[in-house]
Amino acid sequence: MATAGMVIIGAGEAGARAATALREEGWDGPVTLVGAEIHPPYERPPLSKAALLAAEEPAATTVLDRDRAAALGIELILGAEAVAIDRPARSVTRADGRALPYHRLLLATGARPRRLTLPGHERALYLRRFDDALALRPLLRPGARLAIIGGGFIGLELAAAAVARGCAVTVIEALPRILMRGVPTEIAAVIADRHRAAGVDLRTGIGVERIDPDGAILLADGSRIAADAVIAGIGAVPETALAEAAGLSIDNGVAVDATLATADPDIFAAGDCAACAHPLYAGRRIRLEAWRNAQDQGSLAARNMLGRGEAIGAVPWFWSDQYELTLQIAGLADEGRTTVARDLGDGAMLLFHLAADGRLVAASGIGPLGKIARDIRLTEMLIAQRAAPAPDALASPAVKLKTLSLSPART
Length: 411
Known about the structure:
By secondary structure, the protein is an alpha/beta fold. The chain has helices at about 15-25, 50-55, 65-70, 130-135, 155-165, 185-195, 240-245, 290-305, 370-385, 390-395; strands at about 5-10, 30-35, 75-80, 80-85, 90-95, 100-105, 110-115, 145-150, 170-175, 200-205, 210, 215-220, 225, 230, 235-240, 255, 265-270, 275-280, 285, 315-320, 325-330, 340-345, 350-355, 360-365.
């Protein structure tokens, strides 16, 4: 039998980062990275942006190609599915029946698109993988009628890309507004106005009854939207089947502690599939579907697979580019009880979210990238330090964030 080493299931951003970090941290034993897709690990954010807008057929933005994997001594097994974990034997079984013994195991299995269940659901397309982006590109042509079900990040980024390609776009969101999850109302309104200004038919607070054979969508109010293509972006579901079958705890993802360890000390989870107890938010279990989170957790998981025992300290961070606007959110806005606004000029603004004791728990920004990125980064530092800046100072553009004292939270 092969020598037991570090085995990583899931060759996405988190898995690839963990594999390379193991080498950076000095592990010289076997490292095996197993991915279900045939493509080497690649970045997903460009799939709803650059991959759809590129004039020529794009290539995936690879984060760990075969040559670099070989140079690092990482065994990269692609187009292979892991089907079972034998915890007593400490081994993973692949679909072809082969067993992979492990010293430590990392689950970085990611997430899959949440699927529609309404009549005609089989006619909808989804965007999650590079091959999905390649399939969508020919549909985004001038004059094409595109209907997008879901007003979250993926749906809206798709809408912006489709408009840029000359499509007539309708976005349907069943909830009262777009971006209900984690994005403040004021910022969601700015984004909604920008989409409407671009010609997007944005319909909120209304559900979809069915998708007809001709591709048209029937809404709950009886109206009908003709479409040449229907794309659904209604969220993602963590890939937890492997963990659940192995008897690991599932809580909107593979349940892990602040070190990304499961209840089995030899098994860790990271990235989109992991629900982590976060120390910054009183151990609240958080599952993040974000590029930076996948990188941060991949690196942390590698260190802790080597016995470091480090708790997660990275502040949750999200971003989305739509048209000329960049949205960035640091922290968890729903942890805030009061909000302080700062006008940055040129249509840019920051919203600071404060807990009941005055501690800064999140900041949300919208505007051109150059107007908000630095302030969001500075705010991340204040959040990580559990600072409680004076609200008047936060509101004043004349007060530089880097000068704010790290005042303790009020008790």
